[in-house]
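Quick look at the format.
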Amino acid sequence: MTSMSNDISVVVPAYNSARYVGEAIQSALGQSHPPVEVIVIDDGSTDGTAEVVRRFSDRVRYCYQENGGIGAARNKGVQLARGTFLSFIDADDCWTQNKLSLQLQQFVFDPELDMVFGHALQVVTGDAWDNRNSNSDLPQINLTPAMVPGGLLIKRESFLRVGSFRTDTKVGEFIDWYARAIEMGLKSRLLPDLVLWRRLHDSNQGIRERASLSDYARVLKASLDRRRAGQPQPITNGDK
């Protein structure tokens, strides 16, 4: 890339993620194109999340905040980020080793791009998860477009044009953000490559927040209202 820095900041929101967050951090640090920084936002954890993160010493920036939800945690990470590009990984997921390099290359091919996604594979924690890299058949089946934060690499300036993640929902905050990005005309590309392993376990956010599934309806209604008004608006930190 010749026209801009290729520094990437990785934001890891974590809430009571001591069992998994170390593996997520390691998958970010071990990228074939290493990020300039990995920022973990501890969203009010009461388990050993902080101790796990601090084992990485100065390889990881650690920030604690009172529990505000995953949207607030990602927003804080963006505020602290220094890179030209932003990427996000949930504390219980992992990236393939070439995730960032594959996506960054697309900005060389097309400097007008704003964001690049890849594909994901959902794997149940346990033996299937532990053996995922040795099973050559897995990447060939059940791949899904990773239109989630963990599948994204985006120019920081493009993210800021869209604005922050909603903080008044327990689920659906990325659906809302992505809808606003599309409404604002951000240029996107979806790679065919596997870039994200999504871990399925008994404490996934979607399971924890079953009572908040009505948030999806609120998010979709907000998008419809903006389209009818013809005025997609960015959300700034603290806005609902």
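Next, a different chain entirely:
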Amino acid sequence: MNTVGSKSSKIDAFLKLIVCASLISASGSVSYYYLAYRPAQDALLLTERMQAERRREELHVGLEKRADQQRIIMDREALEERRAAAAHDRYEACMSAASLSYDNSRASSCKRLAEKAAKDRADCIAKGQLSAEGCKIIHELRDASSACSLPRATLVDLDDQLEKARKRCSEENKAGL
């Protein structure tokens, strides 16, 4: 029995050795997981999170820059639109002033010619050069409104003044004044 007992104690010792080796192996695996593998994974995860955060930050900065550039472009466009509108308003005001000046000059010429015709008729009648009917025929009264018919030379002068004023408005508009 000694042989059986010594075999059984050898088997027990062998089994104990296998159990101990298994426990050492298992504890080594657990130790490796918690002491080497897990910290490396945590560090890798942390690095990935930091890189993702950095990319988000760079994207955010890029979007802010793009938004700033868009605001600058929109501000420039708005300024250009205001300048163009102001230039258009100045041009329209200049053209209106030219037309008003033309209308006033025309009305003034019509009034002056009507007053002269009335004065000439009155002088003719007062001096007794002709009969009252003769003076009325020779010195016909004129329309004093701005719609009167003017002599060709006066019309040409007025039209030339209007054209010069319009040309000046155009040149000022092109020059940006």
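The CA atoms of residues 34 and 40 lie 10 Å apart.

See the schema section for token definitions.
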